[in-house]
Each structure stands twice: as C-alpha cells, then as structure tokens.
C-alpha cells in the first residue's frame, strides 16, 4: 500500500510537467518543492522562448524532445488560452564565418524536422529588421514566446484535479528503496514519512544534491555540474525589432540575443558567465553586475551598431546546470531510468528544457512504466 503512486522532486516546469503527465494517466502524484513557491529556480529565470529545435545534434534527446515538446506546447497553450506568440526569430551573421555557421544550422534544423527554415535575402532581412547591419540571416518561423507562469499554473491545476498535491517548503531528506516502493522522508515545518511506487528526481540545479539522499545510488554515478550564469540587460527605449534576433551560437550558449516579451519590451541576454568550479547551487549570486554591460554593448553592436550609449540597464539572471565545462562540446540531457527500479533521474536539463517539458514528461513516464 502506498500513499501516492509517484513523488516528483522539484516543482519547476519539467517536474510539474512530469507530475501532470502521470496525473493524466490516472496516477496520484505528490510534488515536493524545497522553495517557497513553484518555479523559483531555472523555470523563473529564462527568456520564455519556445525553441524550434535547430541547434541540437540530430538524434540527441535535446533534438527529439525539443521538437516534439515545441509542437505539444503550442497545442497545450492554445487549448488553455495561455498567452503566447509564434513570433519567429532570425539568426544573424556578421561575417562570412558566421554565414557558414548559419548554413550549417539550417542543414541541421532540416535534418531535425524543424519546419519552415530558410535563408533570407538581403532585401528580405532589410525589410523585416531594417536596423540590423548583417551579412546574412536564417529565419526560424516556429520560434515563439509564451507566459511560462501561466503554463506552470495550468500544470498545477491538472495535478490537483487528479487528486495530487504540490508541497512547497518541503525538501526531500531521504529516500529508501523498498519492495515495489520507496519510503520517502521530508523536512520542512511538518516532517513526513510516506510511501510511493515511483520516484522522479527533477530538482534542476539541485538534482545531484537530491540524488545523494537516495539510498542505493552510487556516488560515483552522480554527475557534477559546472554552473554557468546567464545575465540579462533590459533596453530602456522602444524596441527597434519586431521579432527575436539571435547571433551565431557561442561557447556555452546561443549568444547575447534580443528577446521581446509578450508586451513588446526588449531585453538582451543571456551571456555566459562560467562560475567557479565546485560552486554549489546555494552559492549562486543572481545580482547582475552592471560592469558586464560593456561586453553586452560590444556583442550587440556587432549586429545592431545603432544601439544607443547608456540604453542598457541590469535586469535579472539565471543559472544553467551544465554537464560540460568551458570549451567542451555541449552535453545532452541526462535522463536515467533503471538505476533503481521505479526511479528516474534528470540531470543537466537546461535550455531547451522549458520548450521540451511536455515531451520530457512523456519520456519519463515511459521509463517508469518500462
């Protein structure tokens, strides 16, 4: 006899999506969240971009789950009336080397099944975004924006409608495998001991730390993150752009890009600020250093030379749970089933995790049932 069919650790977008997917399948789910509110980690510190799926190696989890997740996400948002926009984006090149990168991205995107990708003529990109000074551009019409907060609320509503709960300020303190179940112990104001059939570690930045509390997991198998902070600056004037503008990708990220929110406000970021090796998620400082503005001006003026001086102000920052450090090829999602019967662990779920969340949830359910 178990108290819940499943316990999901982490009430970010991916954890809530996993719990909602299990709820749709008729399972009663408890979500444990150490923070005071759902979505306070990676899910609240991003660009709210719906990614098309063109950047990721063909056949990788990032590729397959992003493309499937993006298609599901647009349907989910439309069915529930959640604010979103399939605004599209252009990826820009400022020299011949970057133009070759765009051609490679187009080929990869087409291999990944991304719809509508095409190189723009000079006349086309000048008509679309006349403020840009670029060599060439790739159009991704399937890229978009959405209200991630309303998305999280919709997932929570599904969980609760299925008889489940989201318990905040309730960290996992220990998990012990038992015959066909897990014994779960929690901290917080009211400590609990309960049983569940399935356990999902979707704790984001804290996933490796949470794994250390699961009895029977080999410490050598738990990955170490190299954290990368991403800073954003807001533009204090009126946006000159009508869609998202991305430069060619850089080491550790997609470059300092121009992102419009659903209200039309413009911000730039994120950059890639590698944090000291060994820094834990609890040591991350989220304040944006105003001195980083200088590097933003340089990066942005490569494609928008008209960026006015003094027009950028520090906004917010996020942190990415990287499985590979500076200079190394970007790692794929690490989603593991089978280490312990009934356990699925998710590591390194950074971008495009938000876009992919509904597809990740289906993948996790299949691992649990497999």
UniProtKB/TrEMBL annotation:
This is L-2-hydroxyglutarate oxidase LhgO. Belongs to the L2HGDH family. It comes from the Bacteria. SUPFAM superfamilies: FAD/NAD(P)-binding domain. Its cofactor is FAD. It comes from Aliiruegeria lutimaris. The keyword Cell cycle does not apply. The keyword Nucleotidyltransferase does not apply. Keywords: FAD, Flavoprotein, Oxidoreductase. Pfam families: DAO (PF01266). Residues 5-365 form the FAD dependent oxidoreductase domain. GO terms for molecular function: (S)-2-hydroxyglutarate dehydrogenase activity. InterPro entries: FAD-dep_OxRdtase (IPR006076), FAD/NAD-bd_sf (IPR036188).
């Amino acid at each position: 006899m178990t108290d819940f069919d499943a316990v999901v650790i982490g009430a970010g977008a991916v954890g809530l999506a996993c719990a909602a997917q299990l709820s749709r399948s008729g399972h009663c789910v408890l979500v444990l969240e150490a923070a005071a509110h759902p979505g306070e980690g990676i899910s609240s510190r991003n660009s709210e971009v719906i990614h098309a799926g063109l950047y990721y190696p063909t056949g990788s989890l990032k590729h397959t789950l992003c493309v499937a997740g993006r298609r599901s996400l647009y349907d989910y948002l439309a069915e529930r009336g959640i604010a979103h926009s399939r605004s599209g984006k252009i990826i820009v090149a400022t020299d011949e080397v970057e133009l070759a990168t765009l051609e490679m991205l187009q080929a990869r995107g087409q291999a990944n099944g991304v719809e509508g990708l095409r190189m723009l003529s000079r006349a086309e990109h000048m008509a679309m975004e006349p403020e840009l000074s670029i060599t060439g551009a790739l159009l991704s019409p399937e890229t978009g924006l959405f209200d991630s907060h309303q998305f999280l609320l919709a997932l929570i509503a599904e969980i609760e409608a299925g008889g489940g709960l989201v318990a905040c300020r309730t960290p996992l303190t220990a998990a012990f495998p038992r015959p066909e179940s897990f014994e779960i112990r929690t901290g917080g104001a009211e400590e609990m001991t309960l049983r569940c059939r399935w356990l999902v570690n979707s704790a984001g930045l804290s996933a490796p730390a949470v794994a250390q509390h699961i009895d029977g997991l080999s410490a050598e198998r738990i990955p170490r993150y190299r954290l990368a902070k991403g800073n954003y600056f807001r533009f204090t004037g009126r946006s000159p752009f009508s869609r998202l503008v991305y430069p060619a990708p850089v080491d550790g990220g997609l470059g300092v890009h121009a992102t419009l929110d659903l209200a039309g406000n413009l911000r730039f970021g994120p950059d890639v600020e590698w944090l000291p090796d060994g820094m834990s998620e609890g040591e991350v400082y989220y304040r944006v250093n105003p001195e980083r503005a200088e590097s933003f001006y340089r990066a942005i003026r490569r494609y928008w030379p008209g960026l006015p001086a003094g027009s950028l102000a520090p906004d917010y920052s996020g942190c990415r749970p990287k499985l590979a450090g500076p200079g190394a090829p970007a790692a794929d999602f690490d989603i593991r089933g089978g280490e312990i019967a009934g356990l699925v662990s998710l590591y390194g779920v950074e971008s495009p995790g938000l876009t992919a969340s509904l597809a990740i949830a289906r993948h996790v359910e299949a691992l649990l049932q497999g």
